[in-house]
Amino acid sequence: MKLQEMNFKKDTITSLEELSDYLHVPGMDMKALAQVARVYPVRVTGHFLSMADKSDPQDPLLRQVLPDPMELDDRGPLDHTGEESQQPVPGLIHRYPDRVLLLTTSNCFMHCRHCNRKRYWKGHVLSFDLERCERYIRERPLIREVIISGGDPLTLPVERLEQILARIRAIEHIRIVRIGSRSLTAMPAIFSSGLCDLLASFSPIWMNTHFNHPAEINEETREAAACLRRSGVILNNQAVLLRGINDNAEIITRLNTLLLEIGIRPYYLYHCDPVRGVLHFRTSVDRGIEIISSVRGKVSGLAQPFFAVDLPGGMGKVNLEPGAVIGRRDGRILLRTFQGKTCWYDDATE
Ligand SMILES: *Cc1c(COP(=O)(O)O)cnc(C)c1O
Q1: 219: burial class by Cβ within 10 Å (0-12, 13-18, 19+)?
Q2: What is the DSSP letter of 242?
Q3: Would you give the DSSP letter of residue 26?
Q4: Which residues surround ligand 1 with Cβ inside 6 Å?
Q5: Measured in angstroms, how far is the CA atom of residue 263 from the centroid of ligand 1?
Q6: Which one of 37, 91, 204, 317 is CB 3.0 to 4.6 Å from 128, fit for a cystine?
Q7: Which residues form the domain of 296?
Q8: 102: CA distance to ligand 1 center in Å?
Q9: 93, 100, 117, 147, best to mutate for ligand 1 pocket (most atoms within 8 Å of CB)
Q10: CATH code of the domain in which 47 resides
């Protein structure tokens, strides 16, 4: 499908010069930013930029794609969750008993400056061996789900994506197929080219999107989401809590209610991993818990994501909930409501 590749190249800015020409940000320190871009290259789509305020360097969308000298802080690991040392076959991460994650490509539509796989932009080579991954999964009937990730798997040539989907769907014990992609906000135009039909032919596909701010959603996003839903794709969002970008309850609420309106269920709000080059985006964990507690009960339950941290060494994600059980007596538990009131609740004995 040539159209996908065409859009892809035409709508993508890959140099700092092009990006600064496009923006109207006064006083950009091009020398300092060029130094950053040499380590962590610029990549952003025209579609994403079209939703940003081109004159405001603090714009929540621009901050996600504009190089920042803070990225050169060399503290923190490149691979926080230990993905590189935990691949039983190249490109496959098997952290949980029933599901595996495939790193199918290191390419993305955009380079999000807060990316936790930033190591791949610096030339860290990803190897993905579909045959070996397929064999590994076939030999392990306890695996029921495959997450097709990267990079962004929707940057793959359509024939390759189809091949991966077909091989995985053909494994009898694989009951759930999930794709992770930033495309709905980075390049929604790819869905007008027959990609929805391809996904429909493997229905149902679960797709996890990545939106961090309500301004990342526009009419084209809405249309792409509608096309995907018509094709039987079930949409869930994974956002990252980012300092100065979405770290308050009002923005998180607007993001999550707007996502629901276009048929995308908020699934995770991730605490930003302590990965090298993204430390300046991190808030405290308490900030996240505070935001989550302030939205519990106040907005639709459908708009309530898990707030999770991903632990080092592949120990997995932990969901953080504000303490609900605050006391126990005589077979009853004392619970805190979303309004901060307390209520005794009769427990059952086992
Ligand atoms: C996040 C993740 C998953 C999926 O976890 P869910 O909680 O099911 O969304 C699977 N494998 C790896 C390696 C992950 O990092």
Answers
A1: exposed
A2: -
A3: T
A4: 93, 95-96, 99, 101, 147, 317
A5: 22
A6: 91
A7: 3-346
A8: 11
A9: 147
A10: 3.20.20.70
Tally of domains within the chain: 1
Give the 3-state secondary structure of residue 265: strand
Q: Are 47 and 11 in contact (CB under 8 A)?
A: yes
Please list the pLDDT of the chain residue by residue as tens digits (350 residues). 444 544 556 799 999 999 999 999 988 999 999 999 999 999 999 999 999 999 999 999 999 999 999 999 999 999 999 999 999 999 999 999 999 999 999 999 999 999 999 999 987 889 999 999 999 999 999 999 999 999 999 999 999 999 999 999 999 999 999 999 999 999 999 998 799 999 999 999 999 999 999 999 999 999 999 999 999 999 999 999 999 999 999 999 999 999 999 999 999 999 999 999 999 999 999 999 999 999 988 899 999 999 999 999 899 999 998 788 899 999 899 998 888 889 999 888 88
